[in-house]
Amino acid sequence: MKKRIIGCLLITSIILSGCSFWKPKNTEDDRKPMEQNSAEFDWGNYQKAIYQNRTLIKECNANYQKDISTIKQKENKMLISRMMRGKDMDKHIATPITEEVTRELKVGDYVYLTGTMYVARDAAHKRMIEALDEGGELPIDIRDATIYYMGPSPAREGRPIGSAGPTTATRMDKYAPRLLDLGEKAMIGKGKRSKEVVDAVIRNHAVYFAAIGGAGALLSKCITKSEIVCYEDLGAEAIRKIEVKDFPVIVVIDREGNNLYETAIQQYHTLEEM
């Protein structure tokens, strides 16, 4: 029994001492490589590298904070620029749009339209021009009219119209000048217009609005009534008469020919240089 107790105590003491009893001692030959490695390690360069890394991190952080500050300054300048334009930037207008109305509209104005306007895309525009070429009359009263370039999706139950997002306006560029010369005063679409259209806008004191692309479902909520007035066989491209309330648009080309696609770029570069 005593032998067992002594044996257990011996094993315990070995474990508690970290098993140093079994660790082999380093010989002279074993210590030489360690001493050589220690001698080869350059502590000076090591500390220098750490210092350089810390300095680089501080510089990166400083540049990041500077960039953030610059971005905030530009955002504030853009906000101030808009505020300086005053309340006239947002306008509420009732159709029909006349020359007196377009006189008050400036490029970049936010406008909310209320009243009646027509919906027609390229197929309907083509038919109207063909009717004129054949000596016929237009199926709608074009004088002081507003035409929205749009082809709606089917209406859900209880709604007057489906999704009502704008169509790319360039599809109507070869037809628009003639309709403007006949009295059309406003167009709503998205995207740039040709020089011929811009010239026709200036010549007839008209205006080109842009609606928000990709927001057809939201825009449809501003349409309170919709009915097909002609070219029903064209389906979604038939000409419709719609009633709108606070329909949001932006003046992209005003009666003076000022073009938001050009002026906005200039304003951006000006702010960038500030």
What does this structure look like?
There is one protein chain. The protein has helices spanning 2-16, 28-40, 43-84, 99-103, 122-133, 176-181, 195-204, 216-220, 260-273; strands at 90-94, 110-119, 146-148, 186-189, 207-210, 223-230, 239-253. The longest helix has 42 residues, at 43-84. The protein is an alpha/beta fold and 274 residues long. The chain has a domain at 88-263: Fe-S hydro-lyase, tartrate dehydratase beta-type, catalytic domain (fumarase). The protein is built from nine helices and seven strands; from the N terminus they run H-H-H-E-H-E-H-E-H-E-H-E-H-E-E-H. A hairpin with an 8-residue loop joins strand 6 (223-230) and strand 7 (239-253). It is elongated and about 100 Å long. Strands 2-3-4-5-7 form a five-stranded mixed barrel. It starts with a helix and ends with a helix. It is 45% helix and 18% strand.
